[in-house]
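worker-3 :: picked TOG domain-containing protein
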Amino acid sequence: MSLLPPEVHTALTQLLQGLQSTDNTVRTQAEEQLNTEWVSKRPDMLLMGLAEQMQGSQEEGTRAFSAVLFRRISTRTSKDPNSGEQKETFLQLGSPQRAEIRQKLLLCHANEQKAHVRNKFADAVAEIARQYTDETVLNPDGSRDTWPELLNALFASSQSPDAAMRESAFRILETTPGIIEKQHEDVVLGVFQKGIKDPATEVRLATMAAFSSFFQSLNKKSQQKYFALIPDILNTLIPLKEASDSEQLTKALMAIIELAEVASRMFKNVFGDLVQLSISMIQDTNLDDQARQNALELMATFADYNPTMCKKDPNYTEQMVTQCLSLMTDVGADDDDAEEWNASEDVDFDESDSNHVAGEQTMDRLANKLGGQILLPPTFTWLPRMIQSLSWRDRHAALMAISAISEGCQELMEGELDKVLDLVVPALQDPHPRVRWAGCNALGQMSTDFKGTMQSKYHGIVLPALIPVLGAPEPRVQSHAAAALVNFCEEAEKETLEPYLDTLVERLMHLLQNQKRFVQEQALSTIATVADSAESTFGKWYGNLMPLLFNVLQQPNERELRLLRAKAMECATLIALAVGKERMNQDAIQLVNILGHVQSNIVDEDDPQESYLLHCWGRMCRVLGQDFVPYLQAVMPPLMKLATAKADVQLLDDEENVAQIEQEEGWELVPLKGKYIGIKTSTLDDKFMAVELLTVYAQNLDGGFAPYVAEVMNTVAVPGLAFFFHDPVRVASAKAVPQLLASFKAAHGRDSAQYNQLWEATIAKVLEVLETEPAIETLAEMYQCFYESVEVSGKDCLSNDHMAIFISSAETVLKDYQVRVQKRAEEANEREDGDEPDEETQFAIEDDQTLLSDMNKAFHTIFKNQGQSFLPHWERLLNYYDLFVSNQDDTQRQWALCILDDVLEFCGPASWNYHSHIVQPLIAGMRDNAPANRQAACYGVGVAAHKGGEAWAEFASGSLPMLFEVTQRPNARSDDDAFATENACASIAKILHYNNTKVQNVQDVVTAWIETLPVVNDEEAAPYAYSFLAELIERQNPAVMSQAARCFTFVAQALEAETLQGNMAQRIVGAARKLVQTAGLDANQLLAGLPPDTQQTVRAFFG
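worker-3 :: tokens ->
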């Protein structure tokens, strides 16, 4: 029965007809009428009328369109005239109206006979259900309204004799799983069990999708009761595979992939069978590629989320490697001689949906998750045979596999690089161009993944093989060889490259004459990288290259040449950076003028020269130094335009708008309460780049950039700290702030009124961000911004209010951190033996460790600059230090110990007031099994001896036995333990120097201390240890004189390790000379027993 008068329905019918008109003018008028006369003035009548049209119209098109429009209007957000809050249109209606419309929607859904119309009704029902789960909607009596009738209606529909009705019910459940409350879970289990066994395929698939959505909404404890459904879910796959129903199989696999991502362990009891089933689907060529790739994705998902389960399965790794390699041979169909491939100039053609790319990407994931120990044996069972195969596709696949696995298997493969290169290098002379291309690809990837080793040990194999490929007959092979050389050269030392430069640069310059523009562009990129690595030695080719580049840049700015010109700018400025201002002479000014000319002629938004130009200006700033300052007036306006750009954000509540944005590049869509927020990321990327460049200017021009600092700080850097649309902008802004302060300080002085005004405004904003930043990773950057800014301003730059705010924000951070740690501990308890934390958890732990580390540095910097004035604020967190220092977690103990060290170091005797919080943690820390914690505790004892005065002297001397224990632990000199050992050595030296009156048997202790040398890792510990050694030498202490030769060797080792430098090194060298003379040592004989490098270093010091 209609609740609205007939004339309303007449008007509404006319409106609906107008909105569906093919006449643009009529449709536009109807849209205007909809918004001004209905949505704005009578939304209640509109939604009720649409619901009644859905229920009563004889036209199925009108019913369907009414449902679509109902859904669109009900989700629009506007200010509620009653509460003043932003609410969706439906929730602004009164409770009786909402209830009436809901009832009509359910009746429509239950009674509609046309499946496609019912689906539209289901979407409308799901949208209203979402609003009830996302928002707290109240009944007139104040209780929460959850639309209880909906679940009963859906349960009834799921039992309907009509398969399409059953499917529709599960579609609604998939969209809004939140309507199922805890008390319904047992009933729901039965509904899902029945739906998964439904005779209709569509219902089974809808049930799986609904179950997957519902399961993801549960907490881990609630999930377990649904594990029993897994065998039935997997049984849905078999008939689909047997029928070769690729489309439905693809959907089913997607639902299972989502389940595997959330709770991989639920598949534990059926995993072996699932592996065999999935492998049979991957190799079934009767299925579409998408279905086969989804089966592969399912298996790869288990490697991502539960590598332990995969490693334990006897067939998983071998079968997956075999199938990946097989898929990787599915390349170049109908193009056996690569004629089409050679002719294509679109070298970045997207092949992400191809079988061979799916295989490569999966091999990469398997390598990273399973590791070389597991993956390499089955892989290298195949690769040597494939490399020797007569089929070029096999050879290509083998090389691409090496590219794919080298990062994940880096540790094991690095020791076998000789053998791997024996497989790869001959491919550079293969008769087939795609195999040669793949060989270049493998060498390029290996140059990155085994950086250092490839360049230092294997340059004699790689470069003589790769450089000739620049002369290949195929442009795509030439270009890829040049790209591989970028990877090799950017990690190479200039001494490594020098013997090859003549041939390399000559070949690259020849490529600049190539007919294919993409080859010229790549050659320019490679030349730029070679120049960057070769540095001043590249000067030999400067005279030949720079005029060529100037010539390119002075050509007309034609659209098709813009990327080439951009690469030429990049190349010219990197060469400028390599050879320096003196070598360039007047060319430097000419290049800057050319860049200015290019900039003034950029008119199109999509001109690639614009983004390249930003980096080019930054390089020329580094080349010219203060001589660049006059050019800032031309450079800054376009840069500031990018840096101050606002976020382009759109709320999309219309499917057409969403679809349109999806087609455009440079947009990111973020789901939000049934709608999408569209963020134009291309604008934000430019903004980030501009902020980075401003930082480069401030850093390199120092006081010369000061005239721009206030504007940049106020309009870019400080607002950027709270730019929540884009994390990289916030991070770049955080890095800019201290550099801008340093620039301004250099020009005006730290005590000037101008600087203090800038400082006060800036530090207030930085402290504010410490309290509001939501992202853990970015919060660590904000703490870095804070302590670097304090370091710039120096002594006593923080007021009591500043320090109080800092402590308040730190307390909030520590509370939140403890909650996260507790949650992770609970999740760890729920994991089964052998289950590893997922990648997200591992990243979260790393982010928290970084955050604690940067907080530590912030505390350190405040103590360093504020001294004892920080103590009254610092002690507000004493309970946290006590909790952390006794925690089972190594990271928390280290955090607290480092802060206690700062109290000792910067507050001197006043730190004794807190000895009840410090003494026991230092004692426990010296015995801690975590080397970093022993190091922190040993350092603290040394600082107590050095800075603590009489109050700490007794404790310091009493710690000697424990410090010696640290130096005598097994593996005390291993990489992990060396810093703790060397800090113990330095601390014993401090105690013997500053507190020797409290030490019994001093001479025995000195003799034992000599055994704790040398200090060859820790540059902070070495000066204290060797200063004390020099003191003993000057006094001709018997402990030194009786072991003079060893003491000389200890000095030599420290000089070679560069832990002694500058004046300190000279002082120790003087003492060592005296030791040689006094003890009558033969220095040449002593040196002869040392390695050649050490001999050379020591002779340079001793003359």
